[in-house]
Fold:
Amino acid sequence: MKYALVIFYIFSSILSYSQPIVNSTNVLPIGSVGLIKGHPINTVDLSTGSNITWNNNFLGAFNAIGTFSVLNPSSTPTFSLFSSSNYCIGFSYGSVLGFNYYINNSSFFDLIGKEQNTGSSSSDDYSLNTKRELVYPITYLSTHIDTFFSSTSSSILTLTSTCTGYGSMNIDGKTYNNVIRIDRNYSNSVIEQTWYNVSPFYPLLYRATNNATFLGQMSLLYLDVSSFAGINEINNKQSKINCFPNPANETLYIRTKEKVNLILINCFGEIVKTINAISTLTIVDVSDLNSGVYYLKGSENESVFHQKVMVVR
Structure:
């Protein structure tokens, strides 16, 4: 019994002090969706070190301000601007629809460009010298230094990133048990702190120390995927439709391989919209729909295909 207690103690100690290791395969998979939430207060638990418990429940509830989707870049309307991308995060808030294009491989995670409102040119282009946001594997106290070119500022900036802590986080009434903190320092004096959920790997909480605000009032951004896990599941093996953002707020973009007639059905089986997708990209106004789950359905040559769509206010 004595030896059993010793073994248990050693095993518990190993678990308590084990470090998370993040690789390229950890990233949030394509098809994942969630809410973008914000908070006007910039004060958070800034503890650093090993086995930290970041307790941010004192902030109370965060406000839902938009949605995000992890997309296959080739399915987006502006993929041609950043055709080397293999990972994309689409986001929607208010009337804004945007896409961040990345290269994710076994060695690094680079941001190559940003585009908003599906224009003909990018809102920021890093492709001349990409912004290296992450270098794999990420472990506690790992650091990397990178220079990148931003077309918006027309300048070359230096970025220093360090993993300054790991542990768990309490936020918005939820607990995340495997979290790391990465601090980023830019040569233009901007300092950012981002806490990441480790598995799957995605930015959980973002804070900029230069008092940056989002939508004119939000100082903190929190990504909540917990309520929508699996909502983007496609029921047929090879879907002929792709829609984003999902969840949607005011506008739903539908990409089809060819012309097809679609219907949008609510949870009671009622048809709420009939959609004639006459081009490869169709824009659908969903601002008149209530929050909830809908089903986008179509048919071709006696083959029926459908996809879940979430509308969130």
